[in-house]
Please model this.
Amino acid sequence: MSGTDDVAHLEEDLPLQDLPLDAWHRAKGARMVGFAGYHMPIQYEGIMAEHAWVREQAGLFDVSHMGQLSFSGEGVDSALEQLLPSDIQGLKPFRQRYSMLLDEEGGILDDLMVSRLGDGAFDGADIYMVVNGATKYDDIGWMIEHLPDEVVMNHMDEQALLALQGPQAGDALASLIPETADLLFMQSGLFTWRGVPLWISRSGYTGEDGFEISVPGEDAKLLADALCALPQVKPIGLGARDSLRLEAGLPLYGHDLTPAVSTIAADLGFAIQKRRREEGGFIGHARVMKELADGPGARRVGLRIEGRLPAREGAKIYAGSVEVGAVTSGGFAPTVGAPIAMAWVSTPHSAIDTALEIEVRGKRIAAAVAPMPFVPHRYRRKA
Amino acid sequence: MSRYFTDEHEWIDVEGEIATVGITDYAQEQLGDIVFVELPAEGTTFEKGDDAAVVESVKAASDVYAPISGEVVETNSALEDEPALVNSDAEEDGWFFKLRLTDATELEGLMNEAAYKKFVASL
Model:
């Protein structure tokens, strides 16, 4: 037997660090693996059961490995608009947007969430950003290099980040903090619970309704205990987080998104609002405009797969004898009940329902380009 | 019948010249939810250590090696429809394949149940 810890090998030589809830996870029976430089829970009772629980009830994820940054200072909006292709000036207080950092060639350095703060949250900073754990130090370095001195960036590594996700997440959180019931998808706010300040946004990465909660690390255990004491909430590991986000059609940085790929090709053009497309003024704009005009050479697509054999990251994709792409993440989808994948496929072969073949261990398995998400999103939007 | 174990977390039941091979309960526990098992074709011959089967869990694919040399005489067709049998009953109904042994002396270096338990406890 080999290859039982597919995420462990991502780690290099640095010793793994502990996050604030490390002991809490172990006490809950988690199996811990190395991920993004930290010991992280991959599963508790099992990925299939945890996945199903989040689709039906509510799951608590520890995503404290992610980088939480705040920005303030003169001209912070226009400075960030140099780095992000999204509309920051038009971002209202307590609103959040999905965005990304692009390099000079328009390649994606990271994807992220950016919000306008309010109510004095995070010492009165203007902007809050959550970036991926594995890329956070590179992101910080990139931003230090490109932001003017007047903008102050603070890496809030004393903050933990919990995600509560699932159709019961709204009721569960409202039972602790009734005011959170008013939040809609991509809205956020500052709340106080037992004297602890919590910055809460109604968002997540599972396709379900839910929240991301920034909590001081020293108070994370108190909050995690209070949430998991509710009958509808269980702790959920990274394994189910991956299968849930894949079903939701959400790309995972480092796998589906890399510096080699661009925003439009990744089907993430929604992150670039009209004004930014027209005016430009951000790093990577030329690539965005070119691909909007000419179309990209390859696209990020979903694939449904015949049979039960999963196709994994790296599997080559063929149209007849011609190699036309590769799987970037794939696995068995518990809610779909079949294997699915996300892939990069050359544009002529990227239309919905295009029949393709994936090579798995020397065999060809039948697949077809499928619309994403694979499982409908159930975000709480305005009625 | 005698049961042997390998340090690759496989078990082998030997009856005459036929060996039934599966993965241990410890192994299935480590792998997590199993969603697909790729079994060898009947008639395939293996040298000890060859890739013999692949177990796909939700999160990863793992190779299973032939613990001993032999020819595949039967595979567990129940795993096609119900791969989760490996999770629920790894060391009985979740067996993978049966081999006709070509070299019974290969069994000599393997562990018995007590030794395997001790090995797992040391991991």
Notes: Residues 190 and 364 of chain A are 52 Å apart (CA to CA). Chain A has two domains: 1-296, 297-383.
